[in-house]
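Sequence of 2-polyprenyl-6-methoxyphenol hydroxylase (Kitasatospora indigofera).
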Amino acid sequence: MLGGTVAVVGGSIAGCAFAAAAARGGARRVVVLERSYGELTDRGVGLCVHDDRYAELAAAGHLDDGIAWHRLTRRHWLAADGSPLGRLLWDQPFPFRSYHWGLLWRGLRERTPATVEHRLGDPVAGVRNTSAAADGTPGAVVRLVSGGEERFDLVVGADGYRSVVRTAVCPEARPGYAGYVCWRGSFPAERLAALDHLAGPADLAWPAEHAATVCFPGGQCVLYRIPGQEPGRPMVNWVFYAPPPAAGLRLEDPTSIPPGAATEELTAHVALLAERHLPPYWASLIALTPPERTFLQPIYDLDTPRRTSGRLLLAGDAATVVRPHNTSGAAKAVQDAVAFEDAWRRSASWEDLLATYERERGEAGRALVTLGRRLGRAQVEQAPDWTTMDPARTAAWWDEQLAGTAGFGGHAFRSPVVPVAGPPAS
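Predicted 3D structure, token representation.
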């Protein structure tokens, strides 16, 4: 299928991937509508992509080694026992690449074909299906906050868990609060030298290719290194899961508290939790994080009953929100774009394209949401008594979480992806 006009609402990771997919598929015009001004490189902190998922996405032409990444090979599950690093519960194989969100976004943005029009600071107020074209053919209309309206053959909602497009596709679907939150933080890894007195040099106490998951009753802290904005200067990234403080937070409606906006009470609370529950090395590591690099993200689930309606299509977190425990969010978003591009090339009409995309990604997204809930219950909400766990029991507990699922780190594509050359990148 060739030609047509496509609007992508949202210009983050999913938005860039879908814009590239539509342009390479043969769309006559692709417009990305991003509410923010300027680059998004300061957004987010760390994320990971399983080695197998990376290989598939690289074969499809969406990722490559030119985007900065950090290799991870092992994950140590730990619990406090009075020692600086804690007791080792399990040494788990962990074949992942870690990324800095902003650097991954920049890489995807740079690889978007030059034909794509990016409009920054142009927020969307709403979308709707229409058949108001002069020839009576269906399409979709984007209504801008500025008051204007524009018609496209297809509108892609890549606008995240608070999606405007999802409201038009399935207004009954809303993210559900899981009952706990995660604090996130990051800082330059060179600051780890301040902890040498606790467990020796950082590369010995905590090797650069190792992730750590420190477990405690009612929560856990996940830590790993990611690339820094400056080459050769990696960063420490951490995610701390726990119930929120009784601070009058309203978390039932989708929200987050971005870096620099967390109150002193919120940042002090995570520091108190770390001091109370984590071994000294990891508690001191959390304390190295400046307040302006700490933010709060409530944990939500979202499972939409459908991804398409008329000429509207949902992508990434607009379609499904998966708890971070599955380490699949970025791969899921780009996989959506690969499936969309593949469906485009195999379809004779817009109706075929939308039906194929729904069939390919709907079931996979719902399965990931189910697995994320299972992992959250097992690791945070109904975690075992860590004092009784040893390597054999922890490995068996992990296998039980994954039983009957497609696995950790995201689902494999159902069929091999064949790369197809597209227009030159900008």
